User: Fold this.
Amino acid sequence: MTTTILRGRVLSFIEEPQARDDTGAFVFIEDGAVEIEAGRVVRVGAYRPVAGAVVKDHSGKLILPGFIDTHIHFPQMQVIGAYAAALLEWLNTYTFVEEQRFADSGHATRIASRFFDELIRHGTTTAAAYCSVHPQSVDAFFTEAEKRDMLMVAGKVMMDRNAPAALLDTAQSGYDDSKALIGRWHGKGRAHYAITPRFAITSTPAQMEAAETLKREFPDLHVQTHVSENLAEIAYANALYPNYGDYVGIYEKYHLLGPKTLLGHAIHLSERETDVLAETGSIAVFCPTSNLFIGSGLFDYDRLHARGVRIATATDVGGGSSYSMLRTMDEGYKVMQLRGQRLMPFRSFYHLTLGNARALGLEDRIGRIAPGYDADIVVLDSRATPQMRLRMETVDSLEQELFLLQTCGDDRAVVETYVRGEPLKSGLAEQAA
Ligand code: GUN
Ligand code: ZN
Assistant:
C-alpha cells in the first residue's frame, strides 16, 4: 500500500481553547508529518523518511484539518451580493426566484460542479448544505460530492407556503421526497442526509408534523433550519404560529430540536429560547458575513457560550458573501468586537476544524489530524500575498500567525486541499465553463 506523507507544520486541536495560552488544547509539530494510507491518517509526528512513501513537501506551510462549513445554500451561488434592505426582501426578490432554476437538473448539475470547486478552492472539505425544494437538486449535489469523495450533509428544503408556487412542495410530497432521498443517499459513501424544513415561515403546521415524523423515523439524521435571524422574520413566524410562545418554541413543539439540530443564525433569542437550545443540545450557527451583509444583527457569542449553547460557524452563502471560512472568522471576530467580546485566534481555528466537526457530531471522523481520521486536510500559506509576506516579518508566534491568516487570508492562502488524501485544489480546472 502506498503511503503518502504531508510534510509541514501540523496543527490539530484536541479541545476547545479556554484561554489565549491554552497550549494543551492543540498539537503543533513544527517539522511534522502526516502519514496517509487509503485515505486515512495512520501516523502524525515528527517528519521522518519512510521507504517507498510519496512525500508532499509543504515545509513552512501550516497543515490543518480541512475546514468545515456548517450552513451553506448550494442553489444560491448566483445570488451572492444581491442588493436588498433585509432578509425577507432578499429572499423574495432574489433567492426564491433563483432557486426555481434548480427544477432543471442540467442547471443543478452545472452549479453543483462549480459549488464543489469553490469549496475546494477555499479549503472547505465538509459542509452542511441546503439544496432547493427539488429532489433533483439533491441528486445533483450528492452525485458531485460522491465524485470527489467528500463528506457532506445536505437535504432538500421542505417549504409548502409563502413562496412562489414553483418553489413549493406539500406536506405529503415534502415528506415523500425527503424519504426517497434518505433511502437513495443517506449512508451512501460519505453522504449524510439532513431533514431540512427551510424555516417556520415557509412550512405549514402540517409540514412541520411531516418533518417531525421523519425525525422520529430517522432519529440519527441531522435537522437543519433557520431561527431568529431578523426582527421582521421573527414577528412573521410568531404571527403564523400564534400559540407556540416564541420562535424556538415552534421547533420545540415539533420535536425538531436536539444534538443533531443546526439552527442557522439564532441572533435574537430570548432567555427562554436560549435555555431551550442549551437543554436540548441544539446548535446555534453563527453566520457572520451573512448577518452583516443582510443587516440581520450581531450574534451574541459570549452570552450563548456562557449559557452552555453549542456554537458552530458558517458562511451561509449566498446570504453570506464569501466561501472562505477564514473570511467568515474574520467577520465573526469583528461582530464580537462590536459587542465588546473577544474571539481568541486559537478558538477561531478550533471552530473551523474540531469545533464544527463536533457540532455535526462527526468528531470521530473529521476535524482532527490523528490516526484513524479521514485525511481531509488543508494546507495554508501565511505569506500568500505581498502584504501578508511583509506582515509576517513582524509575526513571532503561532497565535499571531493564525490571526494574520484569519484577518488577511482567503482562498489565496489555501495552497492545497486534500480529500481522503487526494490533492484536489491543484487539480481544479482553472475556470470551468
Ligand atoms: N431563512 C430562510 N431561508 C433563508 C435563506 O436562504 N437564507 C437566509 N440567510 N435566511 C433564510
Ligand atoms: Zn441560511
